[in-house]
Structures are given as C-alpha cells and as structure tokens.
Amino acid sequence: MKCPLCGFDDSKVTDSRHLDDRIRRRRECIKCRGRFTTYEVVEVPLLMVEKRAGGFETFDRSKLIKGIFNAIKKRPVTIDQVEEIADYVESQCANEMRNTVKSSEIGDMVLGKLRDTDPISYIRFASVYKDFTDIESFVAVISEFDQRDAGSGSHSCLLTRCSICGCPQEKENKN
Q: How far apart (Å, rounded) are the C-alpha atoms in residues 129 and 84?
C-alpha cells in the first residue's frame, strides 16, 4: 500500500477491525512512520438484469425489496424475512458467478421463497410478476396451494372460495 504522506510503496498493518461489510486497517509507513487508514471491501461483480422487453439495467436490491414489500403489506412477514429473500437472490447470482440474470429468474426465486413464507404474499407477488390476463390463470396459481397441501396431508392455504361466484377469498381468522 502506497503511503499517502510520502509516496513510499510499503507499509505495515498495525490494527485490523471488521466493520459491517468491510475491513478497516490502520497502517504505518515503513519509511516516514506516518499512519493512515485504509478500508478493504469485497468487490462484487456488477449484476445486470435482462428485462422482459430485452433491455438491461443494473440489479437494484432496493427495487427488489420494494416489490416484495408491496406483496407483504398487512401480512405476517417480517423485515428480516424480506432481507433473507433479497440476500438469497443476490447470493444465488454471486455463487453462480453470473453477471447477467433474467428478470423472470429473479421473480421465480422470489416466488419460491414467498411460497414457503406466506401464501397470500406469494399470490400478490405472482399477480404482478406473472401479469395475469384472465381469471383462469389467476385461479390456477391459487389452486397450486390446494393441490400441494392435499398431497402433503396438511392444509395451510389461507384462501377459500366464495359461495356465490367461486372467486378466491381470504379465510376469516377464528382466533
């Protein structure tokens, strides 16, 4: 590390501390004995998202979290769970050493996590992400929960059908 005081090319580390996502190092120049601080940060490769229309934009974690928050409004999903989903998406892309990812892949990863977290949030996110054009495709997604739960022997779906028209409705909480 080059000394910012005298320009000498060598220094020694006198102290290191971990701070969130970086390391703070106190250094001392070998030549002038001047002290200075450096920060070491892991370089994350730039992740580009390929949109449905074919364009590209940089991955924006806050945009992902905002989309998830829209789906979990007034639902029993914590901020920590939302952060875990965003962390999962980022780490999946980083672990695969990818620099581009399709928006549909990100949506599928989020849906996979929301499916296990909260069925209503899953359906809300899917309704925007999958851009349903008719009622039948929307009902098909909802019925996935009924089929999955019927196969496992438990029923955790929070939806029921309206007795008048058959549309999906949230079950009343009997607590």
A: 19
Higher pLDDT, 142 or 80: 80
Please name the amino acid found at residue 106.
Answer: I
* Sheet of 22-29, strands arranged across: 11-19, 22-29, 35-41
What are the tokens at 141? Answer: 């997604």
CA distance 155 to 148: 9
| DSSP designation for 23 | E
Which two structure tokens, joined as six digits, stand for 19? Answer: 């701070």
pLDDT digits (tens, 9 = 90+) for 116-133: 899 889 888 988 887 777
Contacting residues for 82 by C-beta, under 8 A, at least 6 apart: 65, 68, 69, 72
CA distances to 57, 59, 66, 159 from 120, rounded to whole Å, are: 29, 26, 17, 8
Q: Give, as one character, the DSSP assignment of residue 163.
A: T
> What dihedral do alpha carbons 49, 50, 55, 58 form, nearest 10°?
10
Q: Which two tokens stand for residue 85?
A: 């989903």
**Is the overall model pTM greater than 0.70, yes or no?**
no
Instruction: Answer for the pair 23, 40: CB distance below 8 angstroms, yes or no.
Output: yes
CB 162 within 8 A of CB 169: yes
